[in-house]
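TICKET: design request
STATUS: open
ATTACHED STRUCTURE:
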């Protein structure tokens, strides 16, 4: 890896793509409007980005539809589409450092993780779906001998992906990977806080041979570009990742327009249960700390509610505090930094306000709680730990999306499960135990799309990811996600 100094030099010579990418070309917003793209590392304006609106969305949908109907991608032989996507994945890998730098500058995550988690994750996602393309078979139904019932998957058509800023490209890749593999044309709407990597990626896609109109990017605000995609009569699906509040808007948009397919990956409030029979409390403390402070807590599955069994409470909280001490915010461009900045000043202020709420609610602030590195002009908050939290408090119920841990004590398994499930969310739950029976029994009772046992971050591209309850509808990753971007056609042939 390069040094912080080298990354700073690379950053100063970067040229940013700041226009929409529609039909294979960069174009300004039809209105000519732009918005400033501000780095949370130091408050610097990186560039001004096209602020797309309905007219730009119309143009992108037209380009995506024309490409889809032409068959240039949707009807390409599976083995050729596979090769094109493998070339795309290889091209992304070739631009690993540049794309990671864009993520770091744009949203403040440490450069080390931007490379190893974000960009490497994008590459492996695109590769995985590319490799799947020519291995997925359709079906013949078990009809009687007088008929053949063929069940075939077809691409949906124009798929919009509306994504958040915490893993700007990776959240997109979990959607455009399978959507492209299935033969759809896509329109990506990155979050207004982090548009730069998606805009650059569009060009990389074109250079790798993804046909014009198949991969479009419309940067802009949610209430404009996002809403226009949601309400568009010729968008067949919106695959959304973001807050539960905005996810619900998309259900309304679909109802008010063309009943488009909607998949939602929304918020979470992960319970992380540590039982007293867990032998390796150091590993559990490391997992608990990383689980909540990684990516500055801006993670939908962040294990924000630490449920500790009462007899190990004191010892365990001390261990987690030590992990937090090693994760103090630093320069995101320094490869040694484990925690960077918040995505922007608004998010930092939101986190600070929740820290105040926690204190007012009577929780005990035992670590952190302050804004730091003010002299940089950036948005940095210390890893923060509350103890003596009651699960009914707002800091235990609401998604803070920052480095704030709420510690809750429980007596026994029954109480742990009750508290864990007492939330509107159900994205992930974690538990630490050395008792195999307990692991299985408790995992079954936790209402979450993913249950991690003796980990807070388990799972890979082979397993589905998504939420129970108000954490969403549908799943990303795995072949279940591939199916989401297809519709089933029955062709029933009568044999005489
Ligand atoms: P957000 O909901 O504010 O924004 C997400 C996207 O929706 C952005 O592109 C935004 O521009 C767009 N948007 C905002 N308002 C809109 C509107 N009125 N109409 C249409 N589009 C609109 O979320 P965020 O602040 O970018 O990200 C944080 C949220 O994302 C958290 O709640 C987090 O839990 C969630 N998230 C979930 C997952 C998951 O897989 N479940 C992953 C990452 C983040």
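STATUS: resolved
RESOLUTION: sequence designed for all positions
ATTACHED SEQUENCE:
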């Amino acid at each position: 890896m390069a040094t912080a100094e080298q990354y700073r030099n690379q950053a100063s010579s970067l040229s940013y793509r700041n226009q929409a990418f529609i039909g294979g070309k960069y174009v300004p917003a039809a209105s000519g409007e732009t918005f400033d793209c501000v780095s949370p590392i130091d408050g610097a304006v990186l560039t001004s980005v096209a602020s797309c609106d309905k007219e730009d969305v119309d143009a992108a949908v037209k380009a995506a539809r024309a490409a889809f109907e032409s068959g240039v991608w949707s009807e390409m032989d599976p083995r050729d589409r596979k090769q094109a996507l493998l070339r795309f994945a290889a091209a992304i890998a070739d631009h690993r450092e540049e794309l990671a730098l864009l993520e770091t500058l744009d949203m403040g995550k440490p450069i080390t993780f931007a490379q190893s988690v974000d960009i490497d994750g994008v590459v492996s996602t695109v590769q995985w779906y590319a490799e799947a393309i020519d291995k997925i078979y359709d079906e013949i139904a078990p009809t009687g001998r007088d008929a053949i019932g063929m069940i075939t998957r077809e691409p949906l058509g124009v798929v919009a992906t509306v994504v958040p800023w915490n893993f700007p490209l990776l959240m997109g890749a979990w959607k455009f990977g399978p959507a492209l593999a299935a033969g759809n044309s896509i329109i990506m709407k990155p979050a207004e806080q982090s548009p730069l990597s998606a805009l650059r990626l569009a060009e990389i896609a074109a250079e790798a041979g993804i046909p014009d109109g198949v991969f479009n990017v419309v940067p802009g605000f949610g209430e404009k570009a996002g809403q226009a995609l949601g309400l568009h009569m010729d968008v067949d699906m919106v695959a959304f990742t973001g807050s539960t509040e905005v996810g619900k808007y998309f259900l309304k948009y679909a109802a008010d327009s063309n009943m488009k397919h909607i998949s939602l990956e929304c918020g979470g409030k992960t319970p992380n249960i540590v039982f007293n029979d867990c032998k390796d409390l150091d590993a559990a403390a490391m997992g608990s700390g990383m689980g909540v402070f990684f990516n500055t807590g801006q993670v939908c599955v962040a294990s924000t509610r630490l449920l500790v069994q009462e007899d190990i409470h004191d010892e365990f909280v001390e261990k987690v505090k030590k992990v937090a001490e090693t994760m103090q915010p630093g320069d995101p461009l320094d490869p040694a930094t484990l925690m960077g900045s918040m995505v922007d000043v608004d998010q930092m202020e939101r986190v600070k306000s929740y820290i105040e709420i926690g204190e007012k609610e009577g929780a005990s602030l035992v670590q952190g709680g302050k804004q730091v590195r003010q002299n940089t002009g950036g948005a940095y908050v210390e890893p923060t730990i509350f103890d003596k939290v009651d699960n009914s408090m707002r800091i235990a119920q609401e998604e803070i999306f920052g480095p704030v841990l709420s510690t809750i004590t429980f007596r026994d398994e029954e109480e742990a499960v009750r508290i864990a499930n007492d939330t509107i969310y159900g994205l992930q739950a974690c538990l630490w135990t050395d008792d195999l029976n307990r692991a299985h029994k408790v995992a079954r009772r936790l209402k979450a799309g993913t249950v991690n046992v003796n980990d807070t971050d388990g799972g890979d591209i082979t397993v589905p990811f998504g939420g129970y309850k108000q954490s969403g509808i549908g799943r990303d990753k795995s072949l279940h996600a591939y199916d989401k971007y297809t519709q089933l056609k029955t062709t029933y042939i009568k044999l005489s």
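CLOSING REMARK: The longest strand covers residues 147-155. The mean pLDDT is 98.
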